[in-house]
Every structure is written in structure tokens, then in C-alpha cells.
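## retry 2 of 3
previous attempt timed out at serialization; input unchanged, resubmitting
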Amino acid sequence: MENLRSQRAIQRDDVWAAADALLLEGKRPTIERVRQKIGRGSPNTVSPMLEEWFATLGPRMAQLKGSGTVPVAEEGRGTSAPAPVLQAAQALWDAAMHQAVDAAQAQLAQEREQLQAARQALDAEKNALAQEQAAMAQQRASLEQSLAVAHAQIKMQGARLAELEQGARQKDQFAAQQQQRLQALEQELSASRKARDEVDRAHAEHLREQHAAAQAQQHRALQDIDRARQEVKQWMAAHRAEQEKLARLEVDWHAERKALQLQAAEVEAQWSQSQTRAQQLQQDLQATMSQHAHQIALMDQQFHAQKSQLQRDIERLQADAIQKSTAAGTAHAAAAGVAKSRESEGARGSSRSPAQSARAARMGRNFARAAYRARR
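## retry succeeded, writing output
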């Protein structure tokens, strides 16, 4: 049976009963004392139930007052005190309890509002940080896309430069072929001239017949040479134009490459700044959360300190009320004894001496002053 009870979850009635028992013992109900009284339960479970008990303490005291229960007479001291004294003590007790409960509830409500405002501010800062992180992520994606486009453009420019270099090599090969052809034509012309000289020397008689053919052949050779020279000049002009175009393209490529490198450096710098800003914001958020947590802990300590002070004030007022009630009962009994003594002395008459009469009068006055102070 005990095992089943220990396994049962802690209930509100258990916490309230333990708090009532601690209050009757003259102890301030705290989370640790309630847990020790019950024998189980975690602070997170006991705390809200104990706060609810404090919130309902005022109405419960009002119910006790309406039912005629007098707290100051329940500690084994009986009800021998006069009714006016008990009523005054009860009124003082009720006023002190209402004032303490109202002050505690007002302070608790104010601190709850401050905690709620702090939580709302923290949530707003979290939302702003999340929005800024989303914007930074979007900016990072844009920068990465720009960097990828720049790399693609650099790759395309490199491929274009390779094509231009290959075209230049092909044109150099064509020029070399044309140069070889020109040299072959010049060699052929030289051989033709030698053959013509040999023919002129060997066949002088055929000079006239061969002269026309030689002139025609020379004319054709010269025309071929002229055509070859014109082609070479045209090709050289075209080659120079291509070389100039290639130089301009190379200059443009270097300029574009430098611009892309600068743009990539700017992108890297912006990315580094974004990372630095994100780290700074994360540190600011952690510092803000730590500061709020410290403030909440301080406010909780202040609340518990004020609650402890209020409980001590209530206990002190209760003790004062009990002392006053006891003093009033003692004064009343003393006054009754003095009156009875006076009656007995009046019956005895002249048998008492003047000194005894004076002493009895002084005792009566002293008891009367004590009763007056007890009533005040």
C-alpha cells in the first residue's frame, strides 16, 4: 500500500494540506518544507500549487472569520480572555492578513507583468534575429550565384582565348606554307633562268624561236610571282589585323579578368562581413538572454525575500495579539482579586491597620494601571 502511495502523482490537496500544517506549526510554507512534509514531489510540481495556495489564503481566512473561528485561541490557550480583547485581536489578525495577502498578490502581479514584458521583448528580439538571418541567407545565396556566374564567365573567356590562339597558330601555319610556296616559286624561277641561259648558250640558233616562248614563260612566272607576292601581302595584312585584334581581345580579356577578380574579392569581403555580423548578432542575443535570465533570477529572489518578510510580520503580529490577550486576562484576574480583597477587608472593619490599608490601596491602583495598559 505504501509503494502504491509513493508511486501516486502528487496532488494539489497534498500540497495544500502540507502548507496548512506548516502554517499551524508556525513555519512559513516553502517549496522545500512542503516537499519534506509530503515526502515526495519535484520543485516544478510543488511551486505552482503552492502559489495557488498563497493566492487563496486571503479568501480562506475570510471564510474562517465568517464562521466565527478565532485563530488566536486555537493554540491551546483556551478562550478565557474577554470577548472585546478577542474581537480586537481577531480584527487585528484579519487586517494584517488581508494587507499582507493584498500586498503579496499585488507584488506578484507586478512581477508577472514584468516577466511577461521581458518574455515579449525577448521573443521580439528572436524574431528580428531570425528575419535578419533569413535575409543574410538570401544575400549569401545571391552572392554565391554571382560568384558562380563570374567563374563561368572566366571559363568562357579562357575557352575563347584558347580558340583565338589556335586560330593564330593555324594562320601562322598558313603563312609558313605560303612562304614555302614563294621560296619554291623563286627556286623555280631561278632554275628557269638558268635553263634559259643554258638554252641561250647551247642553242643560240634557236634563240629567236625560243625567245617568244621564254618571254611568255617568264611573263607567266612573273605574274605568278606577283600574284604570290600580292597574296602574301594580303595575308600579312590580314595576319597583322588578326594579331592586332588578338592583342585587343587579350587586353579586354585581362581587363575583364581583373574586373571579375575584383568583383570576386568584393563578394568574398561582403561574405566575410556578413559572417562577422551574424556572429556579433549571435553574441548580442546570448548576452541579452543571459541578462534577462539574471534579471528574472533577481526578481524571483526579491519576491521570495518580500514574501518571507511578510510572513515574519504576520507571525510577529500574531504573537503580539496573543501576548496582549494573555496580559488582558491576567489584568482582569488581578482586578477581580483586588476587588474581592477589598470586600473581605471591609468586612473585617477596624481590625486592619492604616499601613495595611495604604498598601492595599497602592496595589489596587497598580492593578488598575496594568489593566488600562492591557486594554490599550
